[in-house]
Design a protein that fits this description.
The chain has 182 residues and is of the alpha/beta class. It has one domain: Rossmann fold, CATH 3.40.50. The protein is 42% helix and 15% strand. The chain has a five-stranded parallel beta sheet, sandwiched between helices. Helix 1 packs across helix 7 and helix 3 runs parallel beside helix 4. The longest helix has 20 residues. The chain is globular. The relative contact order is 0.23.
């Protein structure tokens, strides 16, 4: 199989507001411009469709991530680059997805909590701090950062383009995509 057809899952994990969706969209744009088959699975969009009805208990969050991982695996096995942008707060379930999928690159979209709160255009952090939302990741529910992510993007100090370049470089170094102009 040539690198042009080799599928992979790129899993963007981080706090709400860290920049997962923005970074995912930029990587998607560049890969599509290079002629690659790409599908983005955004956590917010998936929750409105594939995992509708699941709540935010640990068991429901784990099931949400398992379902996203299942779809990402199907895509990757068929030569698609699956870009997953989901908080996925628990390390164990991310590692479970990695083990099942195999062709997997974890991207820690790392931004300090205070920066994420400043970027909070949905007002979720404010509601969580006021006690209106219980079990909110980073406030009263844990976020377990990756221990050995293939890529770490510090979105409080890097531009979207700089972070995307790191992800693309990781894909190139592992033979999933050929190098090319963005």
């Amino acid at each position: 199989m040539t690198s042009e057809r080799r599928g992979v899952t790129v899993w963007f994990t981080g706090l709400s507001g860290a920049g997962k969706t923005t970074l995912c969209q930029e990587v998607e744009r560049v890969l599509r411009a290079r002629g690659r088959k790409v599908e983005a699975l955004d956590g917010d969009v998936v929750r409105r469709s594939l995992t509708k009805g699941l709540g935010f208990s640990k068991a429901d969050r784990d099931e949400n991530i398992r379902r996203i991982g299942f779809v990402a695996d199907l895509l990757a096995r068929n030569g698609v680059i699956a870009l997953v942008a989901a908080i996925s707060p628990y390390r164990e379930i991310r590692d479970e997805c990695r083990a099942r999928i195999g062709d997997f690159i974890e991207v820690w979209v790392n931004a300090p909590l205070e920066v994420c709160e400043q970027r909070d255009n949905k007002g979720l952090y404010r509601k969580a701090r006021a006690g209106e939302i219980k079990g909110f990741t980073g406030i009263d529910d844990p976020y377990e950062p990756p221990l050995a992510a293939e890529v770490e993007c510090c979105t409080d100090v890097e531009s979207v383009e700089e972070s995307a370049a790191k992800v693309l470089r990781a894909l190139e170094e592992r033979g999933y995509v050929d190098g090319g102009e963005a």
